[in-house]
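Lab notebook page, bench 4
Experiment: in silico fold of construct C2
Operator: M.H.
Input chain length: 447 residues
Purpose: comparison with the prior construct
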Amino acid sequence: MDSSSADFDKKYNIVDAITPKHTLLTGRYKKSFAFHTLKERLPVILTQIIDSLTKEKDEISDKYQGEKTREEIKTIVGHISKLKYQLQTDKPFENFVGCEPDRELWNGFIDALPENARSFYQTAWLYGECYMYRKVFSFFENSETLKSYDYFFKQKAKGLEMDEVAAISKRLRSTEKNFETFSRLLKLNLWGNKCDLSLIIPTNFDPNQNVYDNCTKFDDHILVDNTKSIWDCLESADQTKPVVVDIVLDNAGFEFYTDLILAEYLLEKNLASKVRFHSKPMPWFVSDVTPSDFHYTFEYLSNHKLSYLNEQGQKWKEYVAEGKFELATVSYFWCSPIEYYKMREVDFDLYKYLGEAHLVIFKGDLNYRKLLGDMNWDPTDDFLTCLRGFQPTNLCTLRTVKADVICGLKQGKAEELFRLNPKWMETGEYGLIKFMESSQCRCINDS
């Protein structure tokens, strides 16, 4: 260890150890992905935002309000640079003091944290990471001319330009209603989660293959596979009333495209009568779907030069117009640092809304982390235990593993994977398809 690293560890109370079991994941533990993310990845993301604003300032200024926008970009770059310094020096979180719609939620959360756990390295990794992304957008929404500017949009839009999007569209023009097809589509949707733009992963999984035909090759990398339980849940739904499936979205681009492929299948095979999509109200964790991304996807596809993509886009736009595809009312809870087991207390209306669905599909790593909390669970801990009472309805999670949070594995499996690769929980090479049936008495109408 060099002297600068030793000085950093001493100054910011960093422990050269792994995170103890049943302890919150924090940057304090040096042998954790939380420490690596705070020390290496997040400063890079902030630098990339600064660089893109600086490089594109003329283009952005021309699109918005000229010199006024140019001055605001300088101010915002200054704010982001300060945030980067605060992150790198473990400074305490600051309250939100502008026009943020969720200001009270965030300030109440920050004020409730213990005094010694209100900074990036000392608090839960989930809290610090969410705080960083929320602060960045606050700089834009408190400006005059850039309130709705999405500094991640260009990166997300590129995710739709992959050759695989066209290949899948052509391949799936006709499908059968059977478990085998559903299973392949669910696995396609799972592995689509590997296209997360916030983490470039060296991997043997290439999204530019024909994923639909090849996705079963990765079955041995699915550590928990409850696909049959999800199929049974959908098939057994009471068809005398509307069958609603909610998808809590993760990444835009290729992954969202696979979300739509799955949603279309559910509608066309009468496994659902409506699919509701939950997006983020702001640019979030680089590549998460916002309402603008939702609508842009349909416009991009419906104007595509390839006939089958064009037809697909037109059909999906009709689904939106008919209410079969529905963009759920945007909730700021999805951009809070709060774990989902607290949703009933913090946002009962959202909890009740999810309870109207027959099934809720939670996509991706961040949703998984919020379902479990950033806790170093024992890998064999039961999923139901880790949910800590969060059961608004039947739910499942499709997640490629990119953070050291996991549960529900068979005895000895985690140890086997650690022997193969000590960093297996960071690579995205493994996936989970986990299902939890709703409890018989959810008391969803309790006030």
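Observations: The beta strands are 222-225, 244-248, 274-278, 325-327, 359-363, 394-400, 431-436. The two ends are 55 Å apart (CA to CA).
Next step: discuss at group meeting.
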